[in-house]
Write a structure and sequence with these properties.
By secondary structure, this protein is of the alpha/beta class. The chain has a five-stranded mixed barrel with strand order 5-8-7-6-9, surrounded by five helices. It is 31% helix and 23% strand. InterPro entries: Nucleoside_phosphorylase_d, Nucleoside_phosphorylase_sf, PUNP, Purine_phosphorylase, Purine_phosphorylase-2_CS.
Length: 283
């Protein structure tokens, strides 16, 4: 039975402060999980879902759509459960990890507030760090499907922002150099690159991929950048990791399909899930 209060503000109402909804969501998570606060948030994209069980002990699960401001996911392959996980550290301390299932994509038409709501909720629960993952297209032949890549920067090609009004946020270092170094203590061979987000849901044309490459992109996809901007606005450190699930249009000799993305993610899942779990425990 949902414990969502009847007075929860409507995220779609332009007169509503989206941070009020995030606080209501955080209160709901605390009440239903029995965990008063969290330290690190994970947003798991295509191929990354298996990491949750490897991070630590799952102490509670909440249907994501029952949390204020969230809706049922509309994309095949994306989880619909938010989990609270306890990580026991070698020094005897513990960390609480919030795994947010049911990411909202811009192309779903639910508005940019819904896209940013997950990371804003994580910040409201107390998270100071968020790990954003995704499945994406690669622009380099050397990065075959199954290759994880650390994000060092991004190009937002969605023509929108999660920030409203005169809200100015420095994005010189969107993705934390410190956290990338932590990741490399787990796998020193991890490459890094620039991620370009297109609005979707159609895949990019070969010409668009060439344009993104000329602009400095190494990876193309349909998520992450708006969440990263919102997270930085909330003061969180961001680690971004992409899984190359396919070569981008014009790079790949084959037509692109969502089934290909899911298959590549499934094939890489055991290895990248273990990698991500070890990175999270090291943060």
């Amino acid at each position: 039975m949902s414990t969502t209060p009847a007075t929860t503000p409507d995220l779609d109402d332009p007169g509503t402060d989206p941070f009020d909804v995030a606080r209501a969501a955080a209160d709901h998570i605390a009440e239903t999980t029995g965990v008063p606060g969290h330290d690190i948030a994970l947003v798991l994209g295509s191929g990354w879902g298996g990491a949750a069980e490897l991070v630590g002990e799952v102490v509670a699960e909440v249907p994501t759509h029952e949390i204020p401001g969230f809706a049922r996911p509309s994309v095949v392959g994306h989880a619909a459960t938010t989990r609270s996980i306890r990580v026991d550290r070698a020094d005897g301390s513990t960390r609480q990890v919030l795994v947010i299932g049911g990411r909202t994509h811009l192309y779903e038409g639910r508005g940019v507030r819904r896209v940013a709501h997950g990371v804003r909720t994580a910040a409201a629960t107390g998270c100071s760090t968020v790990v954003l993952t995704n499945g994406c297209g690669g622009l380099h032949m050397a990065w075959r499907p199954g290759q994880p890549v650390l994000l060092k920067d991004h190009i937002n090609l969605t023509a929108t922002s999660p920030l409203e009004g005169a809200t100015f946020v420095d994005l010189t270092e969107v993705y934390s150099a410190r956290l990338r170094e932590v990741a490399r203590t787990i796998d020193a061979e991890l490459p890094e690159g620039v991620y370009a987000q297109f609005p979707g849901p159609h895949y990019e044309t070969p010409a668009e991929v060439r344009m993104a490459g000329l602009m400095g992109a190494d990876l193309v996809g349909m998520s992450t950048t708006l969440e990263a901007i919102a997270a930085r606005h909330c003061g969180m450190d961001v680690l971004g990791i992409s899984l190359v699930t396919n070569l981008a249009a014009g790079i790949s000799p084959q037509p692109l399909s969502h089934e290909e993305v899911l298959e590549a993610g499934a094939a890489a899942a055991p290895r990248i899930s273990d990698l991500l779990a070890r990175i999270v425990r090291a943060i």
